[in-house]
Design goal:
Largest sheet: none
Low-confidence stretches: 343-349
Number of helices: 12
Structural class: mainly alpha
Mean pLDDT: 79
């Protein structure tokens, strides 16, 4: 029913959350402070999907905690402690944090306010200080457990996601170059369009991961956002190539066909090389000069315009195909020399 690839990450995450809560509980008992709030905070922090996300969120949670304990201290000072006071403190703490744009950390503000009013440890300011330390200590415990037990990093996921785009585009262009230019069916084109759409969605989903990876310790980053932007433009060009190919109605002249195939094959080879470089965090190597074969395709396109086939719409389609192929080749050339390092130093996952 459940595959190993699904169960293992869930099991590891459950272990991190459970250990974080248990260790935080024992530390609270040992120090004689509010172990409940330490444990709760540790569990919340350890639920983050990646180490980078945890480090980003812990900053907001620290500010949220400060807002919450101050709100709780204010309510404790003015009204005291009790069910109504708990409600008011949580409401104030959460509202202020939300208005400050702290997002999910607003819930931590509510926890901080609850901790001060529900379990005061002296005067309002003293209670606020102790409960602030409680919650921050729990967050640190959760982070340490994640680092030791299951440091789920965003960096390697960025590498895999970025490398998938040139890999798939290399296959697509290789198939296009190998086709006989007359058998492309609507079904095949639809599959190619769908795959490109999915790659666009996947690539867009990498944006938060790129940001998270930049906050992970021992990580080095060079140009991942730039590479992602170039790849997104490449997917747009590839989609236009597939569409122009789908709309073809006749076999183009041999010289044009061979020129287009050379550009497609050369670009496919370069994309495959770029994918390997991205995955292994190496600089994308120097590409063979494409200017000659791109110029040859341009020349054949101009010949097509000067001596068009009977169907003028076919001329437009072939000009469009030539333009998008050359644009894709140019975008591929722009990857030359770029490096994507989105994993810890020395870890070429």
């Amino acid at each position: 029913m459940f595959e190993r690839d699904t169960l293992v990450p869930i099991g590891r995450r459950a272990l991190v959350v459970a250990l974080s809560g248990l260790i935080a509980y024992e530390v609270g008992e040992l120090l004689g402070i509010g172990f409940k709030f330490i444990a709760i905070s540790a569990v919340i922090v350890s639920q983050a999907p990646s180490l980078g996300r945890s480090l980003i969120k812990i900053r907001k949670r620290t500010l949220g905690t400060l807002v919450g304990v101050l709100a709780g201290a204010l309510v404790l000072w003015l009204l005291g402690t009790g069910p109504a006071e708990v409600f008011i403190a949580i409401f104030i703490g959460y509202t202020i944090a939300a208005l400050m744009g702290l997002g999910d950390a607003s819930r931590i503000a509510g926890l901080g306010a609850l901790a001060v009013v529900l379990a005061p440890a002296g005067g309002p300011l003293e209670s606020a200080g102790i409960r602030f330390l409680d919650i921050i200590l729990g967050a640190v415990i959760g982070l340490i457990v994640m680092l030791i037990i299951y440091p789920d990093r965003a960096g390697p996921k960025v590498l895999v996601g970025l490398a998938a785009v040139p890999e798939e585009l290399a296959k697509l262009l290789s198939d296009l170059a190998a086709s006989d230019w007359t058998s492309e069916t609507a079904t095949e084109a639809a599959k190619a369009h769908e795959r490109i759409r999915q790659l666009q969605v996947d690539l867009g989903g990498l944006r938060p991961l790129i940001q998270e990876a930049g906050h992970e310790p021992s990580s080095r980053h060079e140009h991942p956002a730039m590479v992602a932007s170039i790849l997104m433009h490449m997917l747009g060009a590839a989609d236009s190539v597939v569409e122009a190919k789908r709309r073809q109605r006749s076999l183009p002249r041999v010289a044009y066909r061979e020129a287009a195939q050379r550009v497609a094959l050369r670009t496919s080879e370069q994309l495959a090389a770029a994918a390997i470089a991205i995955r292994t965090t190496e600089p994308v190597g120097e590409f063979p000069d494409q200017s000659e074969i791109c110029h040859a395709l341009l020349h054949e396109t101009e010949e097509l315009i000067h001596n068009p086939p009977a169907d003028s719409h076919e001329t437009i389609r072939l000009v469009g195909l030539s333009t998008e192929l050359r644009r894709l080749a140019h975008l591929t050339d722009s990857l030359e020399g770029l490096t994507v390092v989105a994993a810890p130093a020395g870890d070429h996952t």
